[in-house]
C-alpha cells in the first residue's frame, strides 16, 4: 500500500462481485482513450452483468488501484493465451489494459499497478513480463522505459489506425525490486 493525500492506495484484485466497478472503469477508459486498446467500445457498452463477471473470471487477472472506494485505475495480467491458438510461453505473462483516470495521471498510480502485476506474474512462475503499446503513445512508452522495460523489436500492425503495437519486456523481479 502507498499513502498519498492521507489515504492509502490499495491495489485490489478484482473478483466477479466487483463487476460494476470493473465495468465502470473499463467503459471510462474506452470512452477516454479508445485508440489505446484493442476492445470495441460499442461491444463493451452492450454487455450484460454476467458478461462482465465472465471477463473477470478469466483468462485475464484484473487489478485496480483504489483510494477508499474510488477506483483510480486498473491493469490486467494475461498469464495464458485467450484461446488455444493464442499461446504464451510458460515463463511469460502479458500486461494488458493499463489505464489511469486522467485526473490522477502523474500522481504515481501506474507504478504500483505495474509492480503488483509483476508480483502476480512471479507468483505464477512467469518472470518474463511483456506488454504492447501503440507506437504513437509516447507518454506510455516513456513510463515503461523509466521503469526498466525494453523494446524487444517486435511490432504488430494496427489496421484500425495505420500504426503498430510495440512490444516491451522486463524481468518481473527487476520491476518488483526496482
UniProtKB/TrEMBL annotation:
Gene3D superfamilies: 3.40.630.30. InterPro entries: Acyl_CoA_acyltransferase (IPR016181), Bact_Acetyltransf (IPR050832), GNAT_dom (IPR000182). Keywords: Acyltransferase, Transferase. Residues 9-171 form the N-acetyltransferase domain. GO terms for molecular function: acyltransferase activity, transferring groups other than amino-acyl groups. This is GNAT family N-acetyltransferase. It comes from Brachybacterium ginsengisoli.
